[in-house]
Amino acid sequence: MHRRGHPFRLLVAxxxxxxxxxxxxxxxxxxxxxxxxxERVDLTIQRDGLLHVVETIDYxxxxxxxxxxxxxxxxxxxxxxxxxRRFPIRVVSVNGSAGTPxxxxxxxxxxxxxxxxxxxxxxxxxxxxxxxxxxxxxxxxAFRDHDELFWNTLGSRWTxxxxxxxxxxRAPARITRVLxxxxxxxxxxxxxxxxxxxxxARFADTAVYPGEELSVVVGLPRGTIQPTPRPILHExxxxxxxxxxxxxxxxxxxxxxxxxxxxxxxxxxxxxxxRRYAGSAVDVAFGSxxxxxxxVRPFEDRDSPVEFTPPDNLRPGQIGTLIDECANPxxxxxxxxxxxxRGYLVIEEIPKQxxxxxxxxxxxxxKDGDGLLEYERVLFDALFxxxxxxxxxDLRQTFADDLHRVExxxxxxxxxxxxxxxRPNYVRGVWTAIGxxxxxxxxxxxxxxxxxxxxxxxxxPLFITGVVLVAGAHNMPRRTAKGHGTLRRVFGFREFxxxxxxxxxxxxxxxxxxxxxxxxxxxxGCVHKWAKAFEGLADQAPDNLGWYQSSxxxxxxxxxxxxx
Length: 564
Description:
Blueprint: H1 7-30, E1 35-45, E2 51-60, E3 68-74, E4 76-78, E5 83-86, E6 89-96, E7 104-109, E8 112-118, E9 127-136, E10 140-142, E11 146-152, E12 162-170, E13 177-184, E14 193-197, E15 200-208, E16 212-221, E17 232-235, H2 239-242, H3 247-272, E18 275-277, H4 281-286, E19 293-295, H5 316-324, H6 329-341, E20 345-350, E21 360-365, H7 374-383, E22 389-391, H8 392-395, H9 400-416, H10 424-452, H11 460-472, H12 481-498, H13 501-507, H14 512-524, H15 527-532, E23 548-549, H16 556-563
Parallel strand pairs: 1-12, 20-23
Antiparallel strand pairs: 1-2, 2-9, 3-8, 4-5, 5-17, 6-9, 7-8, 10-11, 11-16, 12-15, 13-16, 14-15, 18-19, 20-21, 21-22
Helix pairs in contact: 3-11, 5-6, 5-9, 5-14, 6-14, 7-9, 10-11
C-alpha cells in the first residue's frame, strides 16, 4: 500500500495543509494554546502479523476545561474498484497520568474507530498524559520480495497541532527498508527523520498540524510473517452485485417463484372455492335430497334457467352482496330505491340552479320502518333520524358511519342466511393481513440479502407471493352449497333483467315490473338495458312512478341517467 500522488494533487494538498496549519495555530491561540506537546507511538510487529500499538500522548488542554480526548484510529482504506481494506482493532488498555480520568469507550463508524477517553462528570485543564494500547489485525502486506507494514500512526482527525511526534517500530527480523510521509492526506512529503538499525526503526517529525498525518513504511524479508499475510477485504456494496444474476441466483429465484406461486395458488384454490350440492343442475340450485356437497370444479358451467322473479323474494341488497361477496354503496343505493318502490319514502328530484349548479335529490319519509329487514331498518333510521325529509347533499358529510353500519348488517344477513362459511369482510381481512405479512417478510429478506450478500434476487419471489395473496384476498370468501345454489338462481334472474329481450317485452305490459325490478337492475349494473325494454311505451311512465318525482317530462333514458 505505497502512496502515489500527482504533482497538482500534491500542490493542492500542500495548500490545504497550510490552511489547516494556520487555522490550527489560530485556534490553539484562541483556546489557550491547546495542543499535543509530545506524541510517541510504539509499534511492535509480531511473527503472526499482529501489530501491537502503544500511543503515549501528552495533551495540554490549557486553561479551558475539557472532559478528555477522542482518538480516531483509521481502520479502513480504499483497496480497489471493488473492495475496501480493513484493519480491525481491539483496545487493550487506557492509562493516564495522576489525576487524569481514563474511562473510555470505543466505537466504530465507517472507516474509523473512535476511542473516547474522559469523565463526562468531570473536567480537567493543563497537561495530561494518556497511554493507549491496542492491537491491529491485517496491517501487514506480502509483496513478491518482502513483507511490509504501512501504517498511518497518528491519524488525520486531530484538531490541534502535534509537536515532537515520534514513532518506534520493533520487528521480529532485520528491517530492510524504511519510508516516512508527513503532511496532508495523500502527501508524499518526507518526515524529518527516518532510519533503522537491526530490527528497530525510528521516525520523527517536529510538528504535525490539524488534518495532517504521519505514516511509516517498514520492509522485512519475505517470509518473516507467518502465515503469509493477506489483506482483510470488505466488498463495497453495489446494486448490480447485490442483485447479481448468475446461474445459481437466477435458477434459485425462478425455482422459488414457481414453487411459492404454486403453493399459494393451491392454498387459495382449495380454501377459497365455493361448495355446491352434488348432483344435477337442479340439485345444485335447489339442494339434493341427501344434502351432499362438493367443491366447485374448475371451469364448471354456471348457466342457469331464466327466472322471472327474484329467488325466494330476496331483496336487492342481499343479492348484490351474494354476487360479489361485498357489501358496498351500490347495494345501499339499490336498497334506497327499493324502499321507495315499496312505499317507505319518495325520491324528489331537485333541478340544478344555474350553469354550474349540480342536481340534488330529496328523500321524503312516507311511513314507519315496520316490517323491514335489519339492514333495511338501520338504513331507514339513519336516513330519517328525527326528521321526515333529507337531501342527499346533506348526507355527504355525515353518512359515512351510517353507511358502514348498514354494510355490517348486510354481512350479518348473508351469513345468517347460511350463504357463506364466514363473514366475507373478515375473511378478506385475514387473507389481506397474511399477504401483507408475506410482503413485509419478503421485503425485509430482500433488503438483508442485498445488504450482505449477492443473493438479493432470491427473496423477491416471497415478496411477489405476498402481493398475489393481497390481490387474491378479495376472492377468498367461500360460499356454502346453499349460497352457491342461490347464486345460480340469482344468475337466472339476472339473465331475465339483462339479456332476455323477448321475455322482457312480454312482461313489459305488466307495468308494475319496471319499478319493482329497477332496484335489481341497479345491483346487476344494467339500468339502461332495463329502461330500454320499455322504450316503446311512447315515453309514458311504464307504471305508477309515485315514488319518484321529477320536474321534467318522463323519459326512460333520462330517468335511467338520473337513477345512475
